[in-house]
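Researcher: Predict the fold of 6-phosphogluconate dehydrogenase NADP-binding domain-containing protein.
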Amino acid sequence: MAPQLAYLGIGLMGQAMTKNIVAKAELEKPLILWNRTQKRAEEHSSSIGHSTVVATVKEAVTKADIIWSCLQDQEAVTETFEEIFRMDIRGKLFLESSTVLPDVTNRIAKQIEEAGAEFVAMPVFGEPSLATIGKLICVPAGPTAAVARIKPYLIDVVAQAVVDLSGEEAGKASLLKIIGNVLIMTTMETCAEINVFAEKTGLGVENAQKLIDNFPHAAAHTIYSNKMLNGDYYQKEPMVEVHKARHLTSQVLDLAKENNVSLKSYKVAVEHLADVENSNGPKEDICGIYGTVRMESGLDFYNNGPKHDTKSEGKNGYEKVL
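Model: Structure tokens for 6-phosphogluconate dehydrogenase NADP-binding domain-containing protein follow.
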């Protein structure tokens, strides 16, 4: 008999991932959805079909065999699992895709296993637009047999690739996610600096973008650069709010310090994040580091909108990319 899946957390990533699970995973039973804001889950369920919404975590866990979670932050993960630990969860499999510290992941894994259930940590790499088209990179770690049970929902469903850490302790996946943040932030910093350099020298950001689009192994650069040039960093719902990003970057720097690692270019990106929060507010998008690099170079924080396809009006009188 096919397992019953439940998904906890319907943020931007959760929306994209559950849409693909319903469309591509050939579920026999409707996907169970839970979100702290129930209305959001109900609206999403109506849009993707073959799903049902429950009002409580307890109801989701009780009805499901595999419980997949991708929650807002570490605090939300901790609170949710504290509630789960009060239930009878024997025989269930928990798949956790939030970004949390390795020791928190290992602690949760230990408690889950002591309660007679299985746990796989599986953070993902890729922002919401990649999640929407099922092109995430998934990093599962935990018991080999448990990881095998969730693989049918990965490649060609939510993921384009899997970095398989089967047999490793769950916290190793979280550690790789934390370390991967260095790649993400330095990529954003590079894109911000290149585009400002191109604008200030008269080359033009459109020409710089042509190079970025065709540079070897530059998929991430293309994504972040487009978000910057199209004005997504101030016109759309934040991909990641800057105050949440700063919390994670402080953890990365703490880990680097503990291990006597120098991350000079990463620290520059972190400083620009701080500038975004201090001057534009904590709910600004992480790609706002483009705005701070612009300001350091004598330009306005806002770049006056998209440089490519424009379809509809956005806030502040700027055009917005659909």
